[in-house]
């Protein structure tokens, strides 16, 4: 296959022209040229060639003005469409001609390319279902405008007492607080209309007047049977109501079972309870299978593959035809191996190494050619696109693709010929890149290494393939050093792992250690992902660039950085954030300074939360955390759908294909980003359950921990050795009555003035571990003399256990009460 290669001939650099200002007329023209089209902010940016922050802010400002003028209409999220064509036509006329009222016919947008839609997404929205809250796109019989004091937004549950409604649009409006008795039983992600009322504490407050779209009217929880009636208490403590289940809809559920209930009736009266039906019973609450299955149901994860998907996967031939081999570059005689976790079964990447005559090294990053087997229009494709990612719970994997592919056909098992899509690099001993090549290949892995085995080769310099592994490890170190020199962020999250018995019960909890073998693989995967993105971006030098799936990471918002800087200052660390180009350097310096100190995990954790979230998009906006101008996901198509998309696009362009329409690809990027977030939340929930299950066997034992969170209810302590987190209630802290000083991120004793703040080391005793609520309670080790404890107990008995004026806020979970410090809500 003929594929483009990098030319060694240097090209003269051209000066970049100064970016031009975006005018309001340009923004409006984007809509008038496409009168039936729904445009999002990112689409506008692409059409107008936006490249700078100033231009983006100009678009925001123009959108706001055009909305106020009634020329464009907000539909949902950040999506807009043309409003009244007469008004638009008048606005575009010269002022001398605006007295005319003759209607101007605007052009009609042409139909889309259907073949691309079949591969990347659904048909565009032309007509919307006519329902309250949405404008009707076509025709003159539009519904009446909503009252001016109402706002449409998405529900984000905060506590059992209130939620935030995030307004649709570009983010110029503040989130609206709605107390749960005024939510009309809306759940997380539901789209609602809110009537605004007076602000409270400077924050906008409103009441839900209509639920426009219920995202998922299902609740997971524990059922309580009273006589013949059932009541489901939700596992998610942010869900603020129980669900009533009548006798004929219990379906043999017993008291204490963990169930999934679908709500069939939402009452108008907030004093009543929604009515539901048990649609799945997971068994007695507290058991491993019941709780893990309940987590899967809570996050809407699939339990099995549809029969037609399994049948289709089983029907794929494992024979590799000679014609297919002839179309590929053959690496079967080149030293190749995989390095993965010891318990891994899906090997989706391999490395090859060969010394060239000029003394350089040819390093091949070979990725399973999943799209060779998963074709557009198949049931496998539709299921993979819907799932979008594999989900890694503590005791199981919910794969994106059936086992026949993920562990069989596509897994790069040793001593088997395998089809791959490869990025091949010519590098010298210092990791300097000379040439890149991308294309379809066939490999034959010589060896399957676990990370531990590869690390042994690095440390001992002995064993099979030790020379090759050490050459690549030395390169990886130099590539990594260059990456950090260019501004990559060093903060890393710690991964908690469990040792489980055959029944899934945790025998131990530990923090996964990242050694050179892990980092070596990571560096070469980063190199492949970066170079694939750069290759596609540079295929076309003028706009619009070729459509590609990028993994982007915006720079942190200045306000959040300043908040973090103030927090770090409480520990004696000063961050100079005035220069945007120095932000990564300042953060990396802080990371080095806190290394090994009690506050390390707290500050690093909050620094990570300060960062923006990485997403998938067709916008080549760069990756702040990695300091890459262009970055994609290419290396894990067995477990990530965006990687499959990147493979298809890259192959299409290598074969000389024309540019692919961007909108269907962008839609799939949004879907994949949402599914990734959901998977991460499910993974965290399973880890929390296993941590609680492990600590249930440690009741009465003493551990050293650090203060990781503060609320009016108490302080959270994270145990150093296993990262299990629990609460010490503020009323149980011995020696004094303590109050939250939220302005200084600490609690203070009323009488003794003792200060407890983030990062302080504490010795705690495990008091309780509640599997049903997934909570751990600690109490502080009290080293005071017994006579002091006895005297305090008598004083408490005489005047009550809490000081007058102390009020414990309900809210149940971390950060549930007002004034807590556990990171930003969003």
From TrEMBL:
Compartments (UniProt record): Cytoplasm
The protein's name: Ribonuclease R
Primary location class: cytoplasm
Enzyme Commission number, as recorded: 3.1.13.1
Keyword Aminoacyl-tRNA synthetase set for record: no
One Pfam short name: CSD2
Biased composition (Basic and acidic residues): 789-811
Top-level class of the enzyme under EC nomenclature: hydrolase
Gene name of the record: rnr
Lineage, uppermost ranks: Bacteria, Pseudomonadati, Bacteroidota, Cytophagia, Cytophagales
Residue span, S1 motif domain: 700-781
Annotated stretches, region: Disordered: 1-23, 789-826
Top-level taxon in the UniProt lineage: Bacteria
Family classification: Belongs to the RNR ribonuclease family. RNase R subfamily.
Biased composition regions of type Gly residues, renumbered to the chain: 812-826
Family matches, as PROSITE patterns: RIBONUCLEASE_II, S1
Keyword match Iron: no
SUPFAM superfamilies: Nucleic acid-binding proteins (SSF50249)
Keyword line: Cytoplasm, Exonuclease, Hydrolase, Nuclease, RNA-binding
Function: 3'-5' exoribonuclease that releases 5'-nucleoside monophosphates and is involved in maturation of structured RNAs.
Catalytic activity of the protein: Exonucleolytic cleavage in the 3'- to 5'-direction to yield nucleoside 5'-phosphates
């Amino acid at each position: 296959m003929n594929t483009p290669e990098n030319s060694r001939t240097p090209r003269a650099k051209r000066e970049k022209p100064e970016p031009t200002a975006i005018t309001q007329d340009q923004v409006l023209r984007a809509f008038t040229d496409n009168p039936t089209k729904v445009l999002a902010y990112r689409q506008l940016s692409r059409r107008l060639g936006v490249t700078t922050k100033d231009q983006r802010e100009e678009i925001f400002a123009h959108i706001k003005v055009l909305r106020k003028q009634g020329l464009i209409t907000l539909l949902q999220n950040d999506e807009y469409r043309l409003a009244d064509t007469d008004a638009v036509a008048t606005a575009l006329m010269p002022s001398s001609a605006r007295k005319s009222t003759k209607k101007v016919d605007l052009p009609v947008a042409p139909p889309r390319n259907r073949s691309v839609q079949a591969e990347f997404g659904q048909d565009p929205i032309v007509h919307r279902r006519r329902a309250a809250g949405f404008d009707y796109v076509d025709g003159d019989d539009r519904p009446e405008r909503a009252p001016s004091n109402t706002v449409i937004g998405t529900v984000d549950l905060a506590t059992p007492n209130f939620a935030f409604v995030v307004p649709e649009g570009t983010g110029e409006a503040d989130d609206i607080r709605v107390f749960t008795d005024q939510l009309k039983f809306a759940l997380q992600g539901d789209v609602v209309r809110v009537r605004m009322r007076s602000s409270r504490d400077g924050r906008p407050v409103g009441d839900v007047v209509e639920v426009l779209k219920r995202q998922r009217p299902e609740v997971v929880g524990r059922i309580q049977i009273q006589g013949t009636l059932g009541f489901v208490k939700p596992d998610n403590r942010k869900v603020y109501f129980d669900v009533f289940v009548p006798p004929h809809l219990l379906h043999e559920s017993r008291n204490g079972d963990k169930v999934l209930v679908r709500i069939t009736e939402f009452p108008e009266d907030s004093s009543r309870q929604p009515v539901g039906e048990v649609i799945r019973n997971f068994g007695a609450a507290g058991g491993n299978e019941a709780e893990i299955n309940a987590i899967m149901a809570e996050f809407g994860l699939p339990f099995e593959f549809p029969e037609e998907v399994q049948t289709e996967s089983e029907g794929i031939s494992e024979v590799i035809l000679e014609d297919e081999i002839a179309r590929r570059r053959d690496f079967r005689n080149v030293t190749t191996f995989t390095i993965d976790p010891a318990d891994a079964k899906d090997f989706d990447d391999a490395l090859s190494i060969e010394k060239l005559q000029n003394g350089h090294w040819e390093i091949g990053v070979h990725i399973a050619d999943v799209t060779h087997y998963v074709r557009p229009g198949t049931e496998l494709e539709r299921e993979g696109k819907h799932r979008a990612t594999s989900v890694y719970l503590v005791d199981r994997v919910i794969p994106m693709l059936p086992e026949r592919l993920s562990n069989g056909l596509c897994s790069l098992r040793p001593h088997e010929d395998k089809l791959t899509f490869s990025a091949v690099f010519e590098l010298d001993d210092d990791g300097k890149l000379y040439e890149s090549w991308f294309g379809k290949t066939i490999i034959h892995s010589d060896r399957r290494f676990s990370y531990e085995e590869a690390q042994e080769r690095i440390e001992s310099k002995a064993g099979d393939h030790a020379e090759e592994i050490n050459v690549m490890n030395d390169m990886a170190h130099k590539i990594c050093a260059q990456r950090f020199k260019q501004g990559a962020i060093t903060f890393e999250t710690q991964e908690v792992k469990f040792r489980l018995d055959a029944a899934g019960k945790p025998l131990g909890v530990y923090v996964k250690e990242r050694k050179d073998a892990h980092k070596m693989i990571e560096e070469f995967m980063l190199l492949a992902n970066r170079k694939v993105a750069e290759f596609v971006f540079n295929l076309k030098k003028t706009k619009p660039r070729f459509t590609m799936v990028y993994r982007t990471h915006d720079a942190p918002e200045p306000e959040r950085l300043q908040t973090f800087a103030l927090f770090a200052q409480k520990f004696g660390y000063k961050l100079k954030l005035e220069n945007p180009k120095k932000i990564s350097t300042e953060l990396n310096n802080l990371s080095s300074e806190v290394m090994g100190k009690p506050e390390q995990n707290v500050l690093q954790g909050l620094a990570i939360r300060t960062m923006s979230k990485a997403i998938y998009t067709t916008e080549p906006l760069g990756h702040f955390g990695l300091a890459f101008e262009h970055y994609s996901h290419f290396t894990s198509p067995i477990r990530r759908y965006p990687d499959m998309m990147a493979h298809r696009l890259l192959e299409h362009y290598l074969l000389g294909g024309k540019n692919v329409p961007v909108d269907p690809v962008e839609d799939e990027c949004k879907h994949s980003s949402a599914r990734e977030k959901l998977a991460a939340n499910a993974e965290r929930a399973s880890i929390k359950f296993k941590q609680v299950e492990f600590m249930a066997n440690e009741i009465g034992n003493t551990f050293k921990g650090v203060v990781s969170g503060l609320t009016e209810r108490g302080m959270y302590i994270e145990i150093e050795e296993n990262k299990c987190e629990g609460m010490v209630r503020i009323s149980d802290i011995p020696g004094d009555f303590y109050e939250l000083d939220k302005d200084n991120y600490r609690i203070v004793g009323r009488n003794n003035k003792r200060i407890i703040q983030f990062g302080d080391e504490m010795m705690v005793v495990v008091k309780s571990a509640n599997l049903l609520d997934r909570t751990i309670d600690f109490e502080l080790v009290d080293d005071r003399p017994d006579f002091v404890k006895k005297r305090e107990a008598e004083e408490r008995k005489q005047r009550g256990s809490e000081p007058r004026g102390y009020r414990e806020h309900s809210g149940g979970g971390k950060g549930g009460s007002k004034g807590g410090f556990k990171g930003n809500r969003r």
